């Protein structure tokens, strides 16, 4: 019994380490200064959604990583829920807002994934980011900078070994 408890606790620690690495990535000033993400609750949600998406993309197709990827998404949802509550949103309206934000996240996943799979990922990502992670009126160079950032971060995550991820390390710091 205690052996299973220790394994579960270690797994939670691994997921927490992975999630906190993704959160740390969202705190880079360049995302807000050069890439056009607003430094607001919504903007920070978008920045985190981008990083969680890139992590999911890295884990896709690897059976050993799929459970970890799902746990990181679950941790993301829990974090957003907690943030909404801390902002003072009433308990009765939190589930409705969470459904909406979950829908927003999965719509982002679908659109960004499609952009990565397009003939010109940089241009497709820049287009996809406008009106989502950055405002419709954002400068074209901000959208291009964020698209480039996403491609570079995706490449860095792609270079992280499966074993490193399973030990809780992303090694994707800048």
From TrEMBL:
Domain Ubiquinol-cytochrome c chaperone: 33-170
Stretches of the chain forming a coiled coil according to its record: none
Pfam (any one): Ubiq_cyt_C_chap
InterPro entries hit by this protein: Ubiq_cyt_c_chap, Ubiqinol_cyt_c_chaperone_CPB3, Ubq_cyt-c_CBP3-rel
Alphabetized PANTHER family for the sequence: UBIQUINOL-CYTOCHROME C REDUCTASE COMPLEX ASSEMBLY FACTOR 1 FAMILY MEMBER, UBIQUINOL-CYTOCHROME-C REDUCTASE COMPLEX ASSEMBLY FACTOR 1
Family in the record: Belongs to the UPF0174 family.
Protein name: Ubiquinol-cytochrome c chaperone domain-containing protein
Originating species: Jiella pacifica
């Amino acid at each position: 019994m205690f052996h299973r408890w220790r394994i579960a606790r270690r797994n939670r620690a691994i997921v927490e380490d992975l999630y906190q690495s993704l959160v740390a990535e969202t705190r880079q000033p360049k995302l807000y200064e050069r890439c056009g993400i607003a430094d607001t609750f919504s903007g920070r949600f978008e920045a985190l959604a981008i990083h969680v998406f890139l992590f999911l993309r890295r884990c896709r197709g690897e059976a050993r990583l799929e459970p970890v990827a799902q746990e990181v998404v679950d941790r993301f949802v829990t974090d957003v829920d907690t943030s909404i509550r801390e902002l003072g949103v009433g308990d009765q309206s939190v589930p409705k807002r969470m459904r909406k934000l979950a829908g927003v996240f999965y719509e982002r996943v679908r659109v960004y994934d499609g952009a990565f799979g397009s003939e010109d990922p940089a241009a497709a990502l820049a287009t996809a980011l406008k009106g989502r992670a950055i405002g419709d009126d954002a400068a074209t160079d901000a959208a291009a900078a964020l698209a480039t950032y996403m491609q570079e971060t995706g490449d860095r995550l792609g270079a992280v070994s499966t074993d490193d991820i399973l030990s809780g390390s992303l090694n994707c710091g800048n």
